[in-house]
Amino acid sequence: MDCDALLLAVGDTLVLKVLETMGKRLVRTKRSRYQIIGDSPFHLAHTVWQVDDEEATKALRGAWDIVPILISRHGEECGADAAAVVEVLDEYVHDLVITGTPHHVEELGYRFETRLGMGAEEMEAAL
Fold first, then answer.
1. Longest dimension (CA), the chain
2. Helices (H), strands (E): how many in the chain?
3. DSSP code for 49
4. What is the CA radius of gyration of the chain?
């Protein structure tokens, strides 16, 4: 697996886990929300209940602490900049939750391509 595909796969996993955590937090705020969400995955809760800018920022605090560790262990040879990756992930998830938009790996790939300079061909192959 090439570096871009690896970064996208890890980013996709991290985004889903952060959205899942945020979704659980959203559902726990009111007991009735458990019935509303039913069997739907928690990572989609932000598409049902609005999250404001302040709440999104608060929920994302510390969400990406693992990224520098992962990049130092598995991505240094790829030339990945941990701070830039964190910034892209944070902005992407923030945008998703305040707009109620579901996560799509293609959109994350587009953001990596346009903001981190990842190659379009590699991104296409990763998707």
1. 48
2. 7, 0
3. S
4. 15
Neighbours of 107 (CB within 10 A): 15
C-alpha distances (whole Å) from 38 to each of 34, 41, 91 are: 6, 8, 29
Tokens of 79: 């030339």
Could you report the per-residue pLDDT of 5-23, keeping only the tens digit for each?
889 999 999 999 999 999 9
Please answer whether residues 72 and 80 qualify as being in contact, where contact means their C-beta atoms are separated by less than 8 angstroms. no
Using DSSP's 3-state secondary structure scheme, residue 7 falls into helix
Residue carrying structure tokens 């999104």: 56
Report the pLDDT value the prediction gives residue 80, as an integer from 0 to 100.
86
Mean pLDDT of 90-109: 97
Number of domains in the chain: 1
* Nearest Cα residue to 64 out of 105, 23, 93: 93
* Span 43-70, pLDDT tens digits: 999 999 989 899 899 989 999 999 999 9
**Residue 125 burial (CB count, 10 A):** 13
Q: Which domain holds residue 84?
A: 3-126
